[in-house]
Design a protein that fits this description.
By secondary structure, the chain is of the alpha/beta class. It is about 30% helix and about 20% strand. Helix 11 links the parallel strand 6 and strand 7. Helix 2 crosses helix 4 and helix 8 packs parallel to helix 10. It comes from Rotaria socialis.
Length: about 525
């Protein structure tokens, strides 16, 4: 060991620094600070300590203990040594107070807080907090993720307060990415109740934020954010509004705009299109939305005439658009090829699939290729497949068709990094699979979802619970969360004794029953789910 240390010490400082730059600086700092004067000096070099990433896993007690040991050493011995060098801190939300109070950070400009608890965020982002008092003029780049379930009025009130305070108290923000749990809608507009003369985020250039509805977005883009060039907005609703927005004729300087809409809207033509037409300097446009009760499908011809032709600098248009509830004449029903051609004519590569019911009500799902988003709109039986390398979350809803193993094999191939899957399929499987594998070919047909961690059966036929939980048909090596009817789970697992479903259930840490029930778990249940 001593010979090894001597050889390291004999290496010139410039070479040591070059080597250390290829390694994790947290590991280097933890291992070398205080060990040797020369190594200490190199490890604390400003070029090596401008960015400190203290995000660490604490998923179980042993890991949490190890994380605390590392964090204690950083807070007591390392951060006080390098505090003047630090320009960018990345911290787990649960450790934010310890790290931020460990020292002063006179050159800190960028801060990322991951999985920050909502109550902690409320304490940090208020006018009297030490954080605001110290950093309100210092921080230029702020990234905050809050993963709490914002599902009741007190939490929603806290969340709205955090929004207001971030917008109003941090004076020199140029980059803001504020991400909250997207599974719960906000109760009311967040920003439109503020005065139109209120000055906020005067220097903001990049903004990524979730909002309640499109009024927030329109209000945000009324022209007052004169430095804004990139805006990414995730809204719950686009609804008909009588709200008056000032400066609606102002041409916006935005170069990049992304709009993700959670719920279907009838107001695309009345509200979205007029706003987009003001973005005459647009270079990159992303749209993800579902439009209902429209007289015709949103195709390439309409999007070109209404939006694209008004953006002379546009070079990238990424979209995932569903038009549904459109009434069509049975004799004049556009096909998927017809829709594809309208985009081909304007040089955009897409894929598309169509659905028509017996009443002439239709659905068209069209998306640009290659598909770069992490979410895709609800898919159905007619989904043609493809490759969606970035998609992590998927919902399949179909009340008409019966699915088969080949469809789920296609889904596994199309979404290789899928982590969350929700199924609402009411028709039973086309062919009931055998409860025993008869040959090698059947073994090869087992479908694997290597990254799937969360599986939801919402109103799904019991056949699909069997299809996914039984390892004769599906392999789920990472499944940790399950949402299912208790009766279905009980039947498929044969009262929590069946070996064929045991493997896919072995790593489950959370099970939510639909509907929620209070129950005393049997011995079989407890043994079957050892990780709960």
């Amino acid at each position: 060991m001593n010979n090894s240390v001597i050889r390291i010490v004999d290496i010139p400082e410039e070479m040591l620094l070059a080597i250390f730059r290829k390694l994790n600086n947290i590991d280097i700092l933890y291992s070398l600070v205080g060990v040797n004067q020369k190594l200490d000096k190199v490890a604390c070099d400003i070029n090596f300590t401008r960015t400190i990433d203290l995000t660490m896993s604490s998923s179980d007690e042993a890991e949490y203990s190890g994380t605390n040991t590392i964090l204690d050493r950083f807070c007591m011995h390392i951060l006080p040594r390098i505090y003047q060098n630090i320009e960018y801190l990345i911290i787990q939300g649960c450790f934010s107070q310890r790290v931020l109070h460990a020292s002063i950070y006179p050159n800190l400009r960028k801060l990322t807080l991951i999985n920050l608890e909502l109550k902690m965020a409320s304490r940090m982002f208020n006018g009297k907090s030490p954080f605001i008092q110290i950093f309100k003029r210092q921080i230029s780049d702020l990234v905050v993720t809050i993963n709490n379930k914002i599902s009741n009025k007190p939490k929603k009130k806290l969340a709205i307060g955090v929004y207001f305070n971030i917008f109003g108290l941090i004076e020199n923000l140029k980059y803001l990415d504020f991400n909250v749990n997207n599974n719960y809608p906000f109760p009311r507009p967040l920003l439109s109740s503020l005065s139109s003369t209120t000055c906020f985020l005067p220097k903001i250039a990049h903004l990524c934020i979730k909002m309640h509805n499109f009024n927030d977005c329109r209000w945000l883009l009324d022209g007052r954010l004169c430095q804004l060039h990139t805006c990414i907005v995730d809204v719950d609703y686009i609804r008909k509004s009588s709200m008056i927005i000032n400066n609606t004729n102002t041409r916006l300087k935005l170069k990049s705009f992304s709009l993700y809409v959670r719920h279907p809207t009838v107001e695309f033509d009345n509200q979205v299109v007029p706003l987009l037409r003001r973005m005459v300097r647009m270079e990159t446009l992303t749209l993800s939305l579902s439009v209902v009760r429209r007289a015709s499908f949103l195709d390439g011809t309409y999007l070109a005439d209404s939006i694209i032709n008004h953006m002379s600098r546009l070079h990238t248009f990424v979209f995932d658009i569903v038009t549904r509830g459109t009434m069509t004449n049975a004799e004049i029903q556009p096909s998927a090829d017809d829709i594809r051609r309208t985009f081909a004519q304007i040089g955009i590569h897409v894929d598309c699939y169509m659905e028509y019911d017996s009443h002439g009500i239709s659905r068209c799902h069209v998306y640009s290729l290659p598909f770069t988003m992490t979410h895709i709109h609800i898919i159905t039986y007619n989904f043609p497949g493809g490759m969606f390398i970035n998609v992590r979350v998927l919902r399949i809803i179909d009340f008409v068709h019966s699915f088969d193993q080949a469809f789920f094999a296609r889904i596994s191939h199309a979404f290789p990094l899928l982590s969350h899957l929700s199924l609402t399929i009411t028709a039973e499987l086309k062919e009931k699979p055998s409860r025993q594998l008869k040959n090698v070919e059947e073994t090869r047909s087992i479908v694997e979802y290597p990254r799937l961690s969360e599986l939801t059966f919402f109103g799904a036929h019991i056949d699909y619970v069997e299809q996914f939980l039984c390892n004769l048909y599906t392999h789920l090596p990472c499944l940790s969360k399950l949402f299912v009817e208790y009766q279905h789970l009980n039947i498929v697992t044969e009262n929590f004794t069946r070996n064929a479903t045991r493997m896919n259930c072995a790593k489950l840490k959370y099970i939510t029953f639909d509907p929620e029930i209070k129950m005393v778990h049997s011995k079989n249940f407890s043994l079957y789910f050892p990780s709960l």
